[in-house]
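Researcher: Here's the sequence for the chain we discussed earlier.
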Amino acid sequence: MGFAQAHQTIASSINLLTPNPPRWVGLAMLAAGGMAAVADFILERQGRRAAPGQEDIYRALAAYYHRAAAEEQTRRQSHYLREEGARPETDCYACASAHLAAIEGAVSRAQEIAARDEGCTADCAAWLEVAAEEAAALLARDWTAQRIDRLPTPTRTTIAGLAKQVDNLLHQLLPEEDRRMVLAAAAELTESVRFARAGDTLGHPEVEARLSSAERWLATAERRDPAVWEAEAGEWLRRLRRQVGTISGPDELARAARQARELSARLNRRAWSALGAGDLLRIRRSAEDLRRRYRAARRGEE
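Model: Thanks. This is the structure I predict for it:
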């Protein structure tokens, strides 16, 4: 494996599994691939005139650096994304499909409760929180403009159109953009829990990026005009922001994610309660259509 081939192989995996890796990750992978290529060069150029036994040393050196590059690549990959079947040449089908299925299921449940209770009660609102978080997570990570641009043309066109529909559905669920800040933090933390449960450490770039994003959203919401929130919201946001900033283990992460979801649902309950059964039926049909179109489009590409 030459330098260009080694670097291309490693970079393609890094770009998918870690969309915005720290600079040192790229440099480390570049160095590992470069060392392997240098070892290959030495073996190729010097092997013919090497002293007896020296060729074995060159070969062992090449094998060592190839193995080091492969081990570093594996170490930096996400267990969760690997299990979901993420690949460099396409979007993560299982990831997006799961988000869309959860949106459809949660909205359907909320609509059924609203029809039964003649209004969106606390139970209904809890399901709308789940649906909105799933939509926010899909747009924040899987279907960003940067990731969509890297897809092949047919897939790129399909996903770009569907991403707009997801954004529109999120707008129907929560029209006030200011109120999406805590929702976005809750979505990032919930996603982090999924990665951690699959074996990714808190220091993994996928988890670290989500924790950083959650802290940023909470800090932004905390500093927003207090009139936007309930009287005690500023203190709730401050406590949660500090908690997120000091997470040191999976249990603390799960606790923070649960509290973020509860806080988001509490702050957005007024918006959820304004949605009647008829409104939710329209949103439900939109969610069903969105998922159906995605599945049909992806089947057509196979």
